[in-house]
Amino acid sequence: MMNFDLVIHNGTIVSESGSQLADLGIKDGRIAAIGLNLTGKEVIDASGLLVIPGGVDPHVHLNMPTATTITSEDWFSGTLAAAYGGTTTILDFVEPLPGETLKEALQARKGEAAGQTWLDYGLHMTISDSEKIPEIKSLVEEGVSSFKIYTTYGDMQLNDYEIVAVLDAVKTINGIVMVHAENDAIVKHATRNLVKDEKLAAQWHPHSRPALAEVEAVQRMIYLARVSGANLYLVHLSTRGAVAAAGQALEQGQNLVAETCPQYLLLNRERYQNEDSEVAAGFVCSPPLRSPGDQQAIWHALRQKTVLSIGSDHCAFNIHTQKQAGLSDFRTIPGGIPGIELRYPLLYHFGVRSGMLSLEQWVTICSTNPAKSFGIWPQKGSLMVGADADLVLFDPAKEFSVNVENLHEKVDYTPYDNFTLIGFPVMTILKGKKLIENGVLRESVPTGTFLKCGSPIIPN
Ligand code: URP
Ligand code: ZN
Ligand code: ZN
Fold first, then answer.
1. How far is the CA of 180 from the centre of ligand 2 (A)?
2. What is the CA(377)–ligand 2 centre distance, in A?
3. Contact 263/180 with Cβ under 8 angstroms?
């Protein structure tokens, strides 16, 4: 009988296909067996704990410059914070500078992460310049198969002709197009009216990006992707109309993955009405937080398996002084909110404990489906024999009080302040090695590496 390097004994092993009380054996950094009475050099008693695949966060922004500042979270701090919350793989973005080739931009981004990332990571390539479209195919061998486009956001925005060209190019390589979908004309129209009326405080931010802006752009992207036949990943869906459009497209057999984020499930637009405008600014993100009705519709879409992926869209800026510097005009408040650490536990507490999601659905949307969508499954997001032993021991009864002091994110606030969560990771294991144990970091240097992403497997 094989003697494993590490055995996780008697835990409830939860994967997309079911749950079982068993032992899990690890050898040479990989999952080597799931069975009973496994023996190993080290045995961890996981009685009463869930053994789950490490989280795969498909949507984070670390060390991301904007026109006026840079995210407060860097590779070192962000990947460590993720690990404390049970995420073991992240996918971030490359945003090429003018004059840089896509390959050059990729190398530069990998250079930033080298020696700084605690977790294995993959990269999506942003296409904001249609002249770069012919370079898309050159990235396949580099391990980049996902391409992000924007239908709004100034310089980042592509028009419909350019979007179709990206979709066609990505279809050729069997990759996936990610889209930030908001109708730019609607956003400009709403913003112009607010500016005319001198409604510039943070509380007006959600009015500048109406729900219909998202619904129109999501529906249009679905049609454009259908015409092209490309795989489509809709990032950060926030509205009832957008998830309804995604649901209809799925019914018609379209290859698409709809993502939402904890903030659109758990927070709503009331947050912008805080009389302290600095607090309100902490919630400025695009798309904005929506109505309780939208929240309910997205929960329903998760339960019905229309929304199949959870990204944090972690994009952290300190209130003091980054958000504060833009307070006089919502257009100048850096957009984005933090959430890399709590994505997995939030979905457990509010999804599983509430009875909205099964345990299996929870690990599927937070780990397996993001890994499938970006071609890193089953190496990541899976507990299959042969997969990387990226695991989390999760105590379903552990209480966690959310406040900045208890978190490891490098930012001076959390949108989930004062939440009390039941259920939290007690150990994060990376390729068979303990990284975090009972809140203590067990390794001394980050050893994460770049992950080559392949073609997506569209989950269902
Ligand atoms: O406001 C947000 N979400 N900022 C991050 C960039 C994006 O749009 O995903
Ligand atoms: Zn976005
Ligand atoms: Zn984002």
1. 5
2. 24
3. no
Nearest alpha carbon, ligand 1 atom 8? 286
Instruction: Collect all residues with Cβ–Cβ distance below 8 Å to 289 and sequence separation of at least 6.
Output: 206, 238, 263, 264, 267, 268, 269, 271, 272, 283
The domain locations on the chain are 3-52+383-441, 56-373
Note the pLDDT tens digit of each residue in 60-102: 999 999 999 999 999 999 999 999 999 999 999 999 999 999 9
> Could you tell me the end-to-end alpha-carbon distance of the chain, in angstroms, rounded to an integer?
37
CB 117 within 8 A of CB 75: yes
Nearest CA to ligand 1 atom 4: 336
DSSP secondary structure letter of residue 278: H
**pLDDT tens digits, one per residue of 112-169:** 999 999 999 999 999 999 999 999 999 999 999 999 999 999 999 999 999 999 999 9
How confident is the model at residue 429, as a pLDDT?
98
Kindly report the protein residue whose alpha carbon is nearest to atom 6 of ligand 1.
Answer: 336
SS3 of residue 194 by DSSP: helix
- The residue-averaged pLDDT of 347-355 equals 98
Coil, strand, or helix at residue 400? strand
Residues 213-233 have pLDDT tens digits of 999 999 999 999 999 999 999
Q: What is the mean pLDDT of residues 450-457?
A: 98
Which ligand 1 atom is nearest residue 286's CA?
A: 1
- What are the structure tokens assigned to 166, written together? 């990206």
Residue 286 CA to residue 238 CA, distance in Å, equals: 9
Sheet holding 120-126, edge to edge: 55-57, 87-94, 120-126, 146-150, 176-180, 231-234, 256-260, 307-310
**By CB neighbour count within 10 A (0-12 exposed, 13-18 middle, 19+ buried), where does 140 fall?**
middle
Which ligand is closest to the CA of 93, given by its number?
3
Lookup result for tokens 């040479």: 28
Q: Say which CATH superfamily domain 56-373 falls into.
A: Metal-dependent hydrolases (3.20.20.140)
Architecture of domain 3-52+383-441: Roll (2.30)
Which residues have CB atoms below 5 A from the ion given as ligand 3? 313
| DSSP character at residue 210 | -
Q: Is the pLDDT of residue 1 over 80?
A: no
What is the chain's mean pLDDT, rounded? 98
- Per-residue pLDDT at 2 exceeds 90: no
> Do 3-52+383-441 and 56-373 share a fold?
no
Q: Which atom of ligand 1 is nearest to the CA of 59?
A: 9
**Bridge partners for 348 per DSSP:** none
Backbone dihedral region of 41: left (phi > 0), alpha (psi from -120 to 50 degrees) or beta? alpha
